[in-house]
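Worked example 2:
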Amino acid sequence: MSNRVLLTVSGTIAVDLQESVQAGKRPRADYVEMSRCLGADLIDYGEANRSVTRVGRIIKRVAGDNALLAWTCFRRRRRYDAVVTDGEQVGIPYAALTWFTRRSSRPTHAMIVHIISVPKKALLFRALGLRHRVDMFFVYSSWQRDFALEKLGMRENQVTLTPFMVDTSFFELSRVVAEPRRMICGAGLECRDYDTLVAAVRDLDVEVVIAAASPWSKRSNTLDGSPLPANITMCKLSLFELRQLYADSVFVVMPLHDVEFQAGVTTILEAMSMSKAVLCSRTRGQTDVITEGETGLYVEPGNAGALRTAISDLLADTDRAARLGAQARAWTEANADIERYATRIAEVVHGLTATR
């Protein structure tokens, strides 16, 4: 068989996924689009558990579902020309397992990398010499790319920097009936600095809605149980409801702690796709999506005074906010659309398998 690909999904694919997408209730899933472009078989937690062996049960009990997913990929590797792991939580254990194979008998391994600079991950990667077992890193952040090259010994031709993705046909202003008002919003949980946002908007003449929820993040909301100013509402919304919130807002605020990866990128791209300017903390890891003064604005992380000034200035210049939002939409269509993203990944993976 030629060009056969196995793509991991670090989770369980919902049985009604495609039905929900077709009904317009949720955006398309990146792994479905990648599977289509790659011609790949998908393997999620459910599939790994359905085919589990006695060794697999031990692996799951000791190391969890991601390690079981890696083990299942390893067992099936001979059927494929390439294995694409959707994060280092699967990619690192899978790469470690391939030490027990000859180079000629293992498929190409491409790993999507979210944050490889975590000390434990980096130490394990270096200690096991896994740069010889991973053919390609796909990274979303320049900081993570530089770390992979400078600290992990990856070669330039082993690291591809790509924008993250958004379903621009779902997150589109024309898909909703907007009810604009003097409101701004924030969304998500991963590394959010909502304490700074609360301090920045306290007593400001603007309604603030914080949709503090995430299907991926395991972090807790630091605002839970805290008294909030009267102009702030905190809630949890579905993606369908979140789209309406973006539409109704003047612009979106993304307050972040200064971390080394692209925390907040999903919300940023959703907002940009909805033609909304994004006011974002300029962290080490979040520099590759927003272009200052063209598609959004940056502020210093943790500086409530600077954030308050930036919010007030943009509220006072709604024409500028609209212009930034329109340019943000154009950028997402050209660079971060889910189909473009999946095509980019597929072209690189297919190129790797063609040169082996």
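Residues 173-335 form a domain with the Rossmann fold fold (CATH 3.40.50.2000). The longest strand covers residues 108-113.
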